[in-house]
């Protein structure tokens, strides 16, 4: 099992890691921005990760929900929203990841402090 798979299976929501059962939709852009800014401003070092398609319940195995291939296309996305609304610019990469044969999504970015207004 890779280190990333281990994090996905055993990790918990925290200052550098969030789990979301479904992909952010257009109506969820504000929630996505809130999540990214919260992780970006957390006082921890390294990569921040939002794992999309994983539902966790205390005491239960994680449930994996497939993310459609189309969500990884270059069409306007949450990544574009992050570039448009977050300063300083923050590069958020949304990548597919297979776990137990299910394609989930990973929004990854490095630590940076976001200016608050």
Overview of this protein structure:
The protein has 117 residues and is an alpha+beta fold. The protein has one domain. Helices cover 25% and strands 26% of the residues. The chain contains three helices and six strands. The protein is globular. The mean pLDDT is 86.
Q: What share of the residues lie within helices?
A: 10-25%
How many distinct folded domains?
1
The proportion of residues in beta strands is 25-35%
Poorly predicted runs are: none
Structural class: alpha+beta
Total strand count, please?
Answer: 6
Report how far apart the termini are. 42 Å
What is the ordering of alpha helices and beta strands? Answer: HEHEEEHEE
* Rg of Cα set: 14 Å
The global form is globular
- Mean pLDDT level: 86
Strand and helix map with partners:
Blueprint: H1 3-10, E1 17-20, H2 29-41, E2 47-52, E3 54-55, E4 63-64, H3 78-85, E5 93-99, E6 102-110
Parallel strand pairs: 1-2
Antiparallel strand pairs: 2-6, 3-4, 5-6
Helix pairs in contact: 2-3
Could you list some keywords that capture this structure?
117 residues, alpha+beta, 4-stranded mixed sheet, two-stranded antiparallel sheet, 3 helices, 6 strands
In short:
By secondary structure, the protein is of the alpha+beta class.
């Amino acid at each position: 099992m890779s280190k990333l798979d281990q994090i996905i299976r055993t990790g918990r929501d925290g200052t550098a890691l969030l789990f979301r059962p479904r992909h952010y939709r257009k109506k969820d852009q504000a929630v996505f921005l809130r999540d990214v800014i919260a992780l970006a401003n957390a006082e921890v070092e390294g990569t921040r990760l939002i794992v999309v398609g994983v539902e966790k319940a205390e005491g239960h195995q994680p449930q994996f929900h497939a993310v459609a291939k189309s969500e990884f296309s270059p069409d306007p996305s949450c990544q574009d929203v992050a570039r448009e609304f977050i300063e300083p610019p923050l590069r958020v990469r949304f990548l597919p990841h297979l776990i137990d044969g299910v394609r989930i999504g990973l929004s990854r970015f490095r630590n940076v402090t976001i200016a608050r207004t």
